[in-house]
């Protein structure tokens, strides 16, 4: 059975374990993003070695290439990409809005043109669930409408209401698909940065009794304080006994603040994408390895990190690789950033279990890297 | 002390061990190419795991970026790139001819413009040795002039004679640098496809008493039969007690034929470069994984291969990764091709040791993959 077991709370923060058919997920959890059936530049064993319990796959990308039916014929996403552990798939809605061309939204769903070849596709709540069942992800997400902020309140309210109706349709489709035991469907709270809309969305979704709840439509350009205030206005109206997932977030400091406000799960392309671009997250802050000051720096990226990049290579070597556009540069930088994110999550889980979350947050904000 | 120990011969073929200060090299040996201080797309541990005893580094690329003095300040090439095993460096001559702009050749050496930023550089026999000593490679190569074929006999003879004079200057510079024990300098036989010029070059180099001898200026477009004939016209005039290295070769069938003719060492970008482009070498021939027929092929690239790509992934997944330009596609395809090349070398060494080289060659030519 899919469930979250809360081992400890500390203020609003929680730590625990999510049980799935394919293994357990220590929470708070960071999910590396595996857009096209690969966490970019990483062997799955290397992703696992950083401490990742679960990764995310993108319905939009996978439905276009290689196609959900094809993945199903090849044994499902886990077998296809050699990741036998839990996978969460998003619903495709966010990417349709941000990547696809010629979108047309209706009550029924959304039609769009592929950013790869211009071909026409449709995504409805039912199709989004069907694709995720074909991929056989452990956690499926409802289809939602995510509005770019800032947006008029009416527009935000409309999208929130549509997302609620789609949540109900997704639940019906998910149950009708008779998924194997341990598979979950999460709802997505919308409502922009309007506290009353967020509360309305959260309460209506809670009434649907889904397996978990995400906060969508955040980290889309609003200030961090606004995002934190929105989490505070939402989390109390979500059932404590279900996982809470903040979608697409974020920077390390965002994770610390969101965990303190009761979030259990995160995903973000930041550690992987910025790693490929030469940005490293370290315990002394972020650095851009392309900077000339690293050209003869024989020190590791972060002396307290145990990742392959930090244990076996100098900043000078990483500088060289990234400047020369060498694939190994992307591999090592990604590997380091994912390790940093997982080390941060391990630190957060430890702080919550020890009742030290406030101290952890304070020291983190002072630049101490208490992990 | 640097030396080759011949364990067995079978016809002209030899198998044995080269001893260096940084470890032994089983021969016949294939050296993966690590142009810019990285075997492209590979962690050094993964290169080692394929069975590689030695890799090649490129003087031309490393002198331009990150610079030989910089590598020396960072502890040498082995430490820089985390490869503690033997490294052979070429002299830069071949890349100056094939990559650099505005070349000017004289008795003294060659001046050229960097293909990276247009900056001016000079390479003399003495500077080529100095760079290789700064990198601290285990096997350094003399600077030579490599003529594109076809070329007039006079031009070939002239380049061969210049290369001989440069060999003597390299030897003087190498000895004057007082290298640590176990470091070697190899001469390079030139002479195009003219048997008498090759013999003259080989005999003159042999008289210089270098630690090993390479055949340069082959695999530059001539038919395989001509390359084989040139090896046959050269190898007998090289000392049997020194390693023989065929530079820049080649396809798997080239390696089999050259080993049968007495070659001990090879390097080639083919397994790495073609891997990144989607070509896989298998025991049933080469295949292009981009081909649509692999889109739903659940079989491994080569069922008899033990590399990570073959043990954990389908052709369909590799097809997807390469089509989607995913870095993991380059990683897995390169990994497979390097494993294939090392497996071939293991097979050749076993055949020679067992006195079965003729049988191995015959079966290989019939497409049987006797390894």
Describe the SSE topology:
Two copies of one chain form a homodimer.
Chain A: E1 3-10, E2 13-20, E3 23-27, E4 29-32, H1 44-49, E5 55-57, H2 59-64, H3 68-73, H4 77-81, E6 87-89, H5 93-98, E7 101-105, E8 110-113, E9 120-123, H6 125-135, E10 139-141, H7 153-176, E11 184-189, H8 195-207, E12 212-215, H9 224-234, E13 244-246, H10 252-260, E14 265-268, H11 270-276, E15 279-282, E16 285-288, H12 308-312, H13 315-323, H14 327-353, H15 357-365
Parallel strand pairs in A: 4-14, 5-6, 6-10, 10-11, 11-12, 12-13, 13-14
Antiparallel strand pairs in A: 1-2, 2-3, 7-8, 8-9, 15-16
Describe the protein's architecture and organization.
The structure is a homodimer of 371-residue chains. Chain A is of the alpha/beta class and 371 residues long. Chain A folds into two domains: 3-268, Alpha-Beta Barrel (TIM Barrel); 269-371, no CATH class. Chain A is 42% helix and 19% strand. Chain A has 15 helices and 16 strands. Chain A has helices at 44-49, 59-64, 68-73, 77-81, 93-98, 125-135, 153-176, 195-207, 224-234, 252-260, 270-276, 308-312, 315-323, 327-353, 357-365; strands spanning 3-10, 13-20, 23-27, 29-32, 55-57, 87-89, 101-105, 110-113, 120-123, 139-141, 184-189, 212-215, 244-246, 265-268, 279-282, 285-288. Chain A is globular and about 60 Å long. The two termini of chain A are 33 Å apart. The model of chain A has no long low-confidence stretch (mean pLDDT 97). Chain A binds chain B through residues 36-38, 40-43, 65-66, 70, 73-75, 80-82, 295-296, 298, 308, 312-314, 316-317, 320-321, 323-324, 326-328, 330-331, and chain B through 36-38, 40-43, 65-66, 70, 73-75, 80-82, 295-296, 298, 308, 312-314, 316-317, 320-321, 323-324, 326-328, 330-331.
């Amino acid at each position: 059975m899919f469930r979250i077991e809360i081992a400890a709370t500390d203020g609003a923060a929680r730590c625990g374990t999510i049980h799935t058919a394919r293994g357990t997920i220590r929470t708070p959890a960071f999910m590396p993003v595996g857009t096209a059936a690969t966490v970019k530049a990483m062997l799955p064993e290397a992703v696992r070695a950083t401490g990742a319990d679960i990764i995310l796959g993108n319905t939009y990308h996978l439905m276009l290439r290689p196609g959900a039916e094809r993945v199903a014929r090849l044994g499902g996403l886990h077998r296809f990409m050699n990741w036998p552990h839990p996978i969460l798939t998003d619903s495709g809605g966010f990417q349709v809005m941000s990547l696809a061309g010629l979108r047309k939204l209706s009550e029924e769903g959304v039609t769009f043109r592929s950013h790869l070849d211009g071909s026409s596709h449709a995504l409805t709540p039912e199709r989004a669930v069907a694709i995720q069942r074909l991929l056989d992800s452990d956690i499926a997400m409802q289809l939602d409408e995510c509005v770019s902020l800032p947006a008029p309140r009416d527009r935000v309210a409309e999208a929130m209401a549509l997302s609620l109706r789609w949540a109900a349709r997704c639940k019906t489709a998910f149950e009708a698909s008779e998924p194997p035991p341990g598979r979950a469907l999460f709802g997505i709270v919308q409502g922009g940065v309007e506290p009353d809309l967020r509360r309305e969305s959260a309460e209506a979704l809670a009434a649907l009794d889904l397996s978990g709840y995400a906060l969508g439509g955040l980290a889309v350009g609003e200030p961090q304080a606004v995002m934190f205030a929105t989490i505070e206005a939402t989390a109390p109206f979500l059932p404590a006994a279900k996982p809470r997932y903040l979608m697409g977030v974020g920077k390390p400091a965002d994770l610390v603040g969101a965990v303190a406000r009761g979030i259990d799960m995160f995903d973000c392309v930041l550690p992987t994408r910025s790693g490929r671009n030469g940005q490293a997250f370290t315990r002394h802050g972020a650095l851009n390895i392309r900077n000339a000051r690293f050209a003869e720096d024989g020190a590791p990226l972060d002396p307290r990190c145990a990742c392959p990049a930090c244990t076996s290579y100098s900043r000078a070597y990483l500088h060289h690789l990234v400047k020369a556009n060498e694939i190994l540069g992307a591999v090592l930088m990604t590997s380091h950033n994912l390790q940093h994110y997982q080390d941060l999550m391990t630190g957060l889980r430890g702080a919550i279990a020890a009742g030290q979350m406030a101290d952890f947050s304070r020291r983190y904000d002072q630049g101490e890297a208490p992990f």
